[in-house]
Amino acid sequence: MRYSKQKETILEIVNNSFDHLTADEIYLKARNLLPNISLGTVYRNLNTLKEENKIISFNSLDNKEHYDKAFIKHYHFICNNCFKIYDRKINDYKKLCSMLNIDENNTNYIDIKVYGICNDCSK
Amino acid sequence: MRYSKQKETILEIVNNSFDHLTADEIYLKARNLLPNISLGTVYRNLNTLKEENKIISFNSLDNKEHYDKAFIKHYHFICNNCFKIYDRKINDYKKLCSMLNIDENNTNYIDIKVYGICNDCSK
DNA sequence: ATGTAATTAGTAACCATTACTATTTATGAG
DNA sequence: CTCATAAATAGTAATGGTTACTAATTACAT
In chain B, which residue's Cα lies nearest the Cα of A58? Predict the structure, then answer.
């Protein structure tokens, strides 16, 4: 595996963002730094970074894959009305794993999504 | 809303299956019962049935939506190697909700997916 | 310096899902 | 039992996120 400025840039964009960016949004941000980067390169590197467990991804109501930092233990609340994605803390990750009978040795990633109506929309 | 044989058939196929069928698989099964049913009808009714909370769906590694019964409290273990989807029991649903600070009043559906390597593949 | 294999840019293709429209059909009123 | 009407369907075309492909570029070891 060789160094590439493109891959490094993509990882930084995901790690420095507080949103849940789609491939297209990451592509647009990357173009500010590397004007010639191509969308295919973004997709390929996102998939590689996932395999290396450096980032995670999940699908949302817009039917697009959203990319996120790997090292923060949290889950997502997704509003069925406004489609916004909220981060929610997981206080006791160990306890959660034991409740779900999860063997952490053969487990890679736990993806929890809670769908409902957010506070803004229920007003 | 009017009765339709197509919608009833689609709901029965999902409820009687022990798999996690995709729209295309449901379409093929439905064609055995209603030879002229169209794929668009399957997709439209699956979306309607979801809105009515009669079925649920989730996205998997094949990047297809999988449809499942709504009334069984369980989560899914997805193997990163063979892409198989396993059902896993949730013993104490109430406790899980309280651990995640979930307000059941504004919550529709909890989608939990655990990714890893299944027993068959780790041999 | 130079060879080479990994990576990229740019474009074309793929395919799951949705949109569209003419036709069919469930249902209620007379 | 008609008949009007609006909801639902069948069949097909279009959409759009993602992947595949290929010639050119580039990191890196020798």
Answer: B59
Q: How far, in Å, CA of B54 to CA of B76, rounded?
A: 19
Q: Which of B108, B112, B113 sits opposite A116 (nearest CB)?
A: B108
Of A87, A89, A86, A78, the residue nearest A117 (C-alpha): A78
Q: Give the distance from residue B15's alpha carbon to the nearest chain A alpha carbon, in angstroms.
A: 22
The structure's pTM equals 0.94
What are the φ and ψ backbone dihedral angles of B44, each rounded to 5 degrees? -60, -45
Which nucleotide's C1' atom has the smallest distance to the CA of B7? D8
pLDDT of A102 > 90? The answer is: yes
**B107-116 and B74-79 beta bridge pairing:** parallel
The pLDDT tens digits for A4-45 are 999 999 999 999 999 999 999 999 999 999 999 999 999 999
Which residue, chain included where needed, has tokens 């949004």? A25
